[in-house]
Structure formats: C-alpha cells, structure tokens
C-alpha cells in the first residue's frame, strides 16, 4: 500500500500458487498464499520484464521468493572443475533440479491423496542435497573450516560473492593512461602481456654462458643422485595442460602488472610434479646454497629477515673510514616472466642433471629493475654513488625499503612497523563475518586464521606491549561478537578464555606470550644449530667475548637481537643436556652446572665426563661423592647417560623426546604467567566436552554454562543494567542460569518429557554446570549407544535458551510440546549427519588399510633381501635389567633370533639398544628392506629415533 493506503499492483509470479504450509498431516494440512510482491507504477516503468519466482517449500514452511529484475548475466564457458560435492553424489545439481521439480509438482496440488507423505520423502531427500550443496559453497568461498551442525550456506554465499566481486576485472589501464573497458580489449591486453614475457630476448649463446661458468664452483650430482632422479615413470599426453588464473596483487589493480598468474594444474600433472619434488628432496642439500633459506627442511624465511636486518644495520652504521658498504635489493619477477632458457640449460648440465630432468624442470626468474634499489653506507662519497647508479641503473635510496613484505626502513618505529599487521587483522574481521558465523565458527576462525596472521613478524621481532594488546583486543572483540555498530559484553576474563581447553579455557593464545615463544625458537636454533648461517652471523657479531647463553644486550644492538635475547631467557628455563661424552656439563662449587650457568672467572669447573665409566656404562659414584652436594649427587646418579658417540646434546627437558617446540615454550610461558601449574582436577571432564558428537556451537554453549558466562537477567543486573531480573518464561523466580535451566516450569516440562525423565525439583542444591561436568566425567557418554541421551540433554539446554531468547526479543509464548518436537527432530538430523560422517571415515580407513595392507595386516610377499622383524621386551623386577628378544625371517624362510639382557636407565634406552643390535646383525646378513611388526607404537618411535626419555 502507498502513503495514502491505496493497494499497489502485484508483480506477476511464476511457480507455486500457495506460498505457506503448516506441514501437518493430511486431515489438518493447511496451505495459504501469504507471500506476495507489490510495486508502484514507477517501478514498472524501470523494470518491464520483472517477475517473482515462487520456489518449492523445502526447509522452511514458507516458499522462497526470488525477484527477477532482468535477464540473467551470461557467463563465458569455463573448463571443467572438480567440486567436493561430487564425492557425496556425482549428480548433485541434476538431482537437486529433479527434486525441486517433483516438489513443485506435489505442492501445486497439495490436497491430492498421498501427496503429503510423498512431500515428506522429497523434503528428506532435499535435506541431503542441500548438505551436498553446502560443500560446493564451502569450496567456492575458499573457507578452510567447516562449522558442523548448522547450515552456514549464507556465510559461504557471501564469502563467494565478495571474492568474485574482488576478482572481477572491469577495466585495465593502458600505457598512455587511458583504460580498456570492453571485455575483448581487456582480454587482448593480457594476451599481449604474456606473449611478451614468455618470449626470450637477446639471449647469450650457450658457448658464452659456458665460458662464464667454466671457472665457477658449481656443485654437481653424484651417480647415486642421478640414479634416484632417473627412476622410470610414465608421462601422460598433454599432462601439462593448465588453467592460468589471474590473482590481484593489491586491492585496486589497474594494470596487467598488478595481477599474478597462478597455474591451476590437472591431477596428472600434480602427481608427476609431486613425485619429482619428493625425489629432489633427497639431493637438495647438495645443490642448494646455504645462503638460500627456502626448499630445505629446517631453513626458514625468517632467517633471511634476520640476515637482511643485521646487514642493513651494519651498513647504516658505517659512517667513517675509507671502505664503504653497499647492498642491492633485487625485486624478482617470478613464475612466468622472461628468462634465458639457454642459461638454465647450461647450469643444469653443469650440475650434472639428467637430460630428461632438464626438459621437465621449469622455473622462471629475472630481475625487475623498476623495483630494485641500491643502498650505500653513509660514508660513501657522492661521486661513487653516481658511478654505482650509472653502472647498475637501479634506484639509489638513502634508507632500506620493503623486503619480504616488510618495510625495513621502519625498524626504529616499532609501533608503525606493526601497524600494517593490525590493519590486516581488522580488515579480516569485517562486521558481516561476526553476524553470519556462530560462536563455534568464530572460535575456529580465531584459532586457525587470525591467530596465525601476525606470526610472520612475531617470529622475528619483539612486539611492543600496546601492539600485542591491540591484537588481543581485536580478536577478543570478534570472539564475543562485536561488529561495526554493536558492542557485546565480555562475560569472562581474557586470561580465563586463553587457558588451555583441558583446564576450562578455550585455548586461544595470547599475542605477547606467543611472541616470546616464537622468539625462543630463534634462540634455540642459535644454541643447537651452530652451523646455521644465522647462528654464525649473530654469534660473530654479538658473541665475540661471551657465549650466547650469557651475553647481555647493549645499547646500539638491533631490535632483532634484543628480541632473540628475550626468547633466550625462555630457552634457558627448559634447556638441559643429554650426556653423551660429558663435555657440556660441569661440576663447580659442589653443584652441577651447564655451560651458561658457570660462574665466570672461577676456574675450578671440571667436566662430568671425568666421572663416567664408559666401559661399564655407569657413574663412578665414589669419585663424585667428594665433589658434589648430596642433592646434586643424587641428581647426577639418576641422570641418564646415553653413552653414544659425539658431543653432549641440548634437549628440552619439558618434553619426553627432548624436542623443543613453540607449543612447549608457550605452555611454559603461560604457566609462569598463571603463577604455577594449572588445576587439572577436571581435565577428564573438559576433554570429554570437546569430544562430544554434537555441533560445535553447542559445545561452546555448554562451555558458557559451565563457566557461568551466559547473559541471563540476573547477571545483566549485576553488571549495572537497569532491568527486571525476573524470569521471562515464568515471571516468578530470578533468572539465573540454575533457575532458567533447572527450576523454571518450562525447563521442568522439557526435562520430564525427555527420555531421561528427569524431575529437576529434586536437584535443588545441584548447580547445572556441576551436573554437566559430572555427566561428562563418565566417558561412556561418547559411546555410540549413549550418544542419543547425551545429544538429547544438550539439545534440551539449547532449546530452553532458544525459547528464552524468543520470549525476550520476540514475545513468543513458551510451548514445551513444540520445543520437544523440535528437539527430537533436530536430534534425529544430527544423529543422521554424524552417522554418515562415521560411514565416510570408515570407508576412508578401509581404503587406507587396503593401500597399506602389507604393513597393517601382514606381509604377504617378501622380496629378495627383505626381512620381517618381531621385537619384544620386558623388565626384571627389582633392578635395571631388561630382557629383550628379536626374531626375524627372510623371503626364503630363514630365521634369525636374538635374546639378550641389557642394563639400562629405563625401558626406552633398552629398546633402542635392542634395535641397534638388531639392525647391526641384519645389515651383516645383507638385509636392505625391513618390515617391522609390534603391538606397541614405542617400537616405531624407537626406530624413528624418537626416544622417550625423562630428562
């Protein structure tokens, strides 16, 4: 109706006539035409061909209405792409169209006999198709998480549409400043660009390149390496056919240079390339320079940041002397830019690569002079500066520019340096995401994506405290549901939320603590990897007089070095030594001291290797008694000596394997900030909570109940809100969490009508949170047979909360019977969903078992020089002697038996001694392939070198 109450014309419609149904049985089934679209005359003048399409009723009780304004946009034909939903049903889209057509036919004549029953069956099939369609939108949205238990298709739709809008190329800037806007002109501009960069220009001849490389020391492959690379494989025809997709490098790309080409390879190509990569891994250490931080396991891009920062610091501080320093910052155009293929061929030949590999390996790289800079130390004369610029042709700069994505010129402005990361974090948390994601989805996003965004900088630089607080505040606000217009209450402290899940928190990590943990990894590398390039550089620059373990920061040291020293303090708290030769552990003043604990200037320190009896594998206690205090003597006697060849090895004493990790360092830091050990008295209950087979948002909901952080009226009034704190469902008692879920008449009706048949009036003194944890204490609630009962009481709590919110915000009157039906229906859907998921996992496990049949179910065939090994071990009571045995057979049925007793500090050491002896004997017998069988994973860990030792 218009302003004067006159009825406006209705838009023409297609599809169903009735748009609403009460979805009841046949004798009480009702259909109405409730949903219509109207428009004023001005609308019809603008949109002449518009109409409303009434789609079949599927999930809701209303028909979805789509307003079609004009003809649909025509999309150009694209290559076939595999979609995830095809794994659940190959003809998902066709099936959906068929079901929609059948539903429309049934709902067009709703009163025909049998149509109500048929409609229910079709709707059930449509539910499955919609779940499959959700997989499609998850894939198209590029989301890396899946919020189970709720159809978040709206979120995936919005993500996909925003991504499409961002990637759509509407115009391209020409060299003369004007723009191409027609699709054909834009296409031609890109084709011309790639034709140009794919072509080689002014290549040197092969003879010229060989002359230049003749006197250079280039590593060459050995015969063994060539044999590894030349293993035969089949090449399919046209396997290198790929789809090139253009990815914008910035928010508002205008030129062809602002797009990065990405190769979308087919499956065959990926399999071949993956196999080539796996083979190359075996020889990369031989051909990759130590100055290259990529490609080799253990090297990290942060090494280049450290090296670059320290070199720039040295250059900028060089203000005196006749010698001057220079740095070239070369911007490399990668992937499909011009290159001299002749040069690549000569280099690969020089490195002794096989001819077929020279044809396979394609890697393109050239220097982009437009973005390359020349930095000279301040003491460089002006005439020399001009000479360098003329020779190289690069931009001459007075301060460092961007390097590996960071502005190196801002290293002295720490807050400004981190501002870019803060801005990116804020841009990721746009308001629409907090609206469309549930609490479970927000938690997943925080832990998987947002928490990892700043790690690139945090692993190298110590962030200022206010920067860490800003990052935490951004993540904290997003988790509690803040958006651009509304602020939400934080019903639990951030310290509590960041606790580990096993002690009642959510496991979100604080930025400042993670920063220290990342820096401790850099310090650990300097302590344990003395041959690493970064370790050599930093030690030579800062540790000339003092060891790294004891050196202190000085005025003028770089930001990176001071940051690493803060990480070192964390390392030293968990640093211990695995004694092999006893040359890194000392006795000084009656105490056991590591190298960094020695008192400088006190020369009476003696290494503990003088107390070792290597022949008998034990300590000479009589000699140690006169040197150590009783407490330290007892520690030394119980400290395990591995008696392996080589130097003492640094280990992390808070890990059974002695292996340092960022996670272990973070746990140590968080415990210190907490003031000691966590309270693990309810660890079982919390772990069971996070394993419940219910939608993730319901797990978060239970967590809020158990931690008393739901915004009930009593809590709101306690926080200063001027509201009536009476229960909105019964208008009698105060709305606390216990009253709402236990003692409210509506809650009592829900509980009594459940299959549990609970009478909550008997639980007067029972706290609802304690009751939940008590239930979770019994791990049987995770079993399939009991999952229905667990799911039912979880949904009972959830729908009580839903009813409370509907009454509070919408004025909906409570109806226990209606809610009970919703609980049963929702429980059935969730059970079916988890059942299908379990069946899928079982199929995958069966497939894995089939592929790994030789290892998991036995070894049906042993080739020549193949041996099958069985190990066993047991401890003799009352001493440190272990009985061990090994039996092995080869492909001819011959057997080998070992039975030996070892005296060792613990079972892990005895296990390793048996493995070492077995491998030695089998090697002497000519074995080259071993199949190891045992009913315990400890043997696998022992073979892989993961010794579980208490340091």
Describe the protein's architecture and organization:
The protein is α+β, with helices and mostly antiparallel strands and 951 residues long. Among the domains are: 13-167, no CATH class; 414-509, no CATH class; 580-647, no CATH class; 683-843, no CATH class; 854-943, Ribonuclease H-like superfamily/Ribonuclease H (Nucleotidyltransferase, domain 5, 2-Layer Sandwich). 44% of the residues lie in helices and 12% in strands. It is built from 36 helices and 25 strands. The strands form ten sheets. A four-stranded mixed sheet has the order 24-23-22-25, with helices on one face. Strand 6 (172-173) and strand 7 (179-180) form a beta hairpin. 22% of the residues are buried. Residues 660-751 form the Reverse transcriptase zinc-binding domain. Residues 247-370 form the Reverse transcriptase domain. Pfam families: RVT_1 (PF00078), zf-RVT (PF13966). InterPro entries: Endo/exonu/phosph_ase_sf, RT_dom, RVT-Znf. Keywords: Nucleotidyltransferase, RNA-directed DNA polymerase, Transferase.
